Amino acid sequence: MRTDWKNLTVVITGASRGIGQYAAFEVAKRGGTPVLLARSGEKLQAVSEAIKKETGITPFTFKLDVTNEQEVERVFNEISDEAGPVDALINNAGFGIFESVEEGSLDNFRAMFDVNLYGAVACTKAVLPQMRKRRSGHIIFIASLAGKLATPKSSGYSATKHALLGFANSLRMELDHSGIHVSVVNPGPVRTDFFHTADSTGEYRKNVEKFMLDPEKVALRLVNLIEKPKREVNLPFWMGLGAKLYQLFPGLTEAVAGSQFKKK
Ligand code: NJP
User: How far is the CA of 198 from the CAs of 67, 106, 195, in angstroms?
Assistant: First the structure.
């Protein structure tokens, strides 16, 4: 269990808003140094200033589109030079578009894979050599319960998160006895701007409003992992249980609870 947050450098992708922003606040509140990454430089600056005002910690900020491989390499080199070695990487940047297979465009599928899977792979590859050398580190993926239980109109998004879970599970085994932890957080719906893109009609948001998680609480559970590494956190607990039931009895679960999966 880790409690020495001083001098701990935590890189967070997608830190300009939503879960990533709250995770950055939480890291700084505990005394760690967050490194904020996202495409929107102005928003990163605003988050950084708010963190400094509230916690006294000055975060590092770098503009980064995780889909640009060269940019990922360059930015992670800069992080290493300016902030020092990365102790933890939170692969959080991601987005979804809810549409049926027939209506959805292949371009949207590719764009989701580029950010949600390949972006996380690129950032992970950028921190691994140094973590290996130091025999220490933690890589956390924000996947989704959609990566365990796919529902209608999220085939593309679910596929990216299933892939991300597969990637993380393989990586964990490759890193056995390396001193590097691999964790995954699988949330259900979280009250963030995610839905502005994912759910253009607002239908899904309306249908799941009462189940929506608070991003601040998700961030808290996420940052707790750095203190006490775990393989996986499913939020809320009962939805994680539902996903487990589905994996054990997919046909039966669809037959009994199928209408509950049609909220989009
Ligand atoms: O979403 P949102 P959340 N390169 O839209 C960044 C997963 N999740 O916090 O680049 C770099 O508020 C974007 O920044 P910017 C979800 O799949 C969510 O809810 O400036 N960064 C922003 O900071 C995702 O993996 C729910 O536009 C890129 C951030 O990503 C994670 O949680 C449920 C980028 C997105 O912030 C955070 O999502 C679930 C790029 N190319 C899983 N593209 C949920 N909200 O219900 C985007 O199961 N970003």
Answer: 19, 16, 5
Q: How far is the CA of 252 from the centre of ligand 1 (A)?
A: 33
Answer yes or no: are the C-beta atoms of 211 and 189 closer than 8 Å: yes
Does residue 186 come out as left (phi exceeding 0), alpha (psi in the -120 to 50 range) or beta?
beta
Closest CA relative to residue 175, chosen from 134, 234, 224 = 134
| Backbone φ and ψ of 152, nearest 5° | -55, 150
Candidates 11, 12, 13, 17: which one to mutate for ligand 1, based on the most atoms within 8 Å of Cβ?
Answer: 17
DSSP-derived letter for residue 36 is E
CA of 251 to the centre of ligand 1 (A): 31
pLDDT tens per residue across span 106-150: 999 999 999 999 999 999 999 999 999 999 999 999 999 999 999
% pLDDT > 90, the chain: 87
Q: Are 44 and 38 in contact (CB under 8 A)?
A: yes
**pLDDT tens for each residue of 61-115:** 999 999 999 999 999 999 999 999 999 999 999 999 999 999 999 999 999 999 9
For residue 148 and ligand 1, the question of a CB distance below 6 A is answered with no
CA distance 262 to 243: 15
